Amino acid sequence: MVIETEPKASASTSVSNVECDIKDRSLADRGRRRIEWAEAEMPVLRQICERFEKEKPLEGIRLAACLHVTAETANLMRALKAAGADLALCASNPLSTQDDVAAALVEHYGVATYAIKGEDTDSYYSHIVAALNHRPQITMDDGADLVSSMLFIALDRLNDVHPKVRDWASQLTAEERHALLDDVIGGSEETTTGVIRLKAMEKAGVLKFPIIAVNESDTKHLFDNRYGTGQSTIDGVLRATNILLAGKILVVCGYGWCGRGIAMRARGMGARVVVTEVQPVRALEAVMEGFEVMPLMDASRIADIFITVTGDLNVIDRHHMEVMKDGAIMANSGHFNDEINIPALEELAGGRGQEVRDFVEGFKLPDGRTIYLLADGRLVNLAAAEGHPASVMDMSFANQSLAAEYMVKNGPSLEDKVYVIPQELDHEIARIKLLSMGIKIDTLTEEQKKYLASWESGT
Fold first, then answer.
1. Which domains does the chain have, with CATH numbers?
2. Fewer CB atoms inside 10 Å of the end CB: C or N, the chain?
3. What angle do CA 148, 208, 143 make, to 5 degrees?
4. What's this model's pTM, rounded to 2 decimal places?
5. Distance set, CA 234 to CA 113, 214, 251, 358, 380 (Å)
6. Phi and psi at residue 87, to the nearest 5°
7. What is the chain's pLDDT, residue by residue, as a tens digit (459 residues)?
């Protein structure tokens, strides 16, 4: 990995000589326009940014973020920088980076950024090393790769990390590796997948600092996961394939908030939606919402399109692929590319497939069928499209920014556990969002507040 330290010529004034590893600095002006376009749809974060500019609640705090490097994330970085944070940003997925945005972050906003769309696994983990080398006091994760790497190093479990991380950590003494955690106040996590990993760390007793599970906030998962993932996933599938959804049988694997959103949007475009689940309550919800629910093996024989959103391993496995129709399309919108068993698909096809369109790979099977995989099984909404609309990320990143502020204020008094952002902050984000939309709501009268706090009144 080459770390650029000398800025190249730019069409406009550069403010940055920060370290970076990005594709092309000359894309910075285009990236800035994209960032400013997104900002117009992010009034809650803008209001927080204005307060941060005055109060500087993160002054001098070293913050490392492993997030999708998009225009929306760039506005989060601007808010954190306004708060006084010393930032390093790396990508949380090899295919989700917007290269022009990465360039703008370096050139126009002075944020040390390590992200290139399409980077290989070695580069991905080299970028995580760059974030670790920042010696963060606050972490901000999307999938928990940054935190897990820190913990593996500090626990001397170097065989559990990627070779690039291991090589870097091996150059440190045992004392230096353990000291990686000394200055850490705490962190936050954006995704369902990351929260699952962090709760497993807590249960195993290896989580060594407090984490706020931003994903658990109502203003995050009820909107980002449902409306954001719902719209952007369908957007990614359509951009990659240009197929007509109307009349197609589309299987949604998993009926959490992301699955609900995808199922809702697919039905709205005329698809015949089938839901597969392992959790009976969610399966029952899907039935009550009017969706057909069946085992994935049964759905595999009839479906045209499959989308996984479970956060689990090998959801679509070899035996499912063996019975799929010719021309079946598989996509994933869960965080990691583990949900579709790609090695099994390669084994069935006798090797890698053939690229037939950008982000569409066709795997020819011996019996003549072709099965298509989108975006190498990675997040199709970010790989083939642009991720969630800025309006919904406004609330998610408001949560992230306030979580960082809360952690700096309260982290030293918290235990090494996974926490939820305080409800009053969650409600404040919703209140500001409503006001920005010109919507007013009622408030309780004093009489009503007293009634709700009492037990005496009965039938």
1. 20-219+389-436 (3.40.50.1480), 227-383 (3.40.50.720)
2. C
3. 30
4. 0.92
5. 29, 24, 12, 16, 9
6. -105, 145
7. 333 333 333 333 455 578 999 999 999 999 999 999 999 999 999 999 999 999 999 999 999 999 999 999 999 999 999 999 999 999 999 999 999 999 999 999 999 999 999 999 999 999 999 999 999 999 999 999 999 999 999 999 999 999 999 999 999 999 999 999 999 999 999 999 999 999 999 999 999 999 999 999 999 999 999 999 999 999 999 999 999 999 999 999 999 999 999 999 999 999 999 999 999 999 999 999 999 999 999 999 999 999 999 999 999 999 999 999 999 999 999 988 999 999 999 999 999 999 999 999 999 999 999 999 999 999 999 999 999 999 999 999 999 999 999 999 999 999 999 999 999 999 999 999 999 999 999 999 999 999 999 998 887
List of residues 6+ apart from 206 with CB closer than 8 A:
151, 155
**CA–CA distance, 182 with 202 (Å, rounded to integer):** 18
If one counts every other C-beta atom within 10 angstroms of the C-beta of residue 294, the result is 15
Under a CB-based contact definition with an 8 Å cutoff, are residues 243 and 275 in contact? no
Helix and strand element counts for the chain (H, E): 20, 16
The phi and psi torsions of 102 (rounded to 5 degrees) equal -60, -40
Amino acid at site 85: A
- Tell how strand 62-67 and strand 86-91 pair up: parallel
Element at 122 (helix H, strand E): helix 121-132
User: What distance in Å separates the CA atoms of residue 112 and residue 64, rounded to the nearest whole number?
Assistant: 10
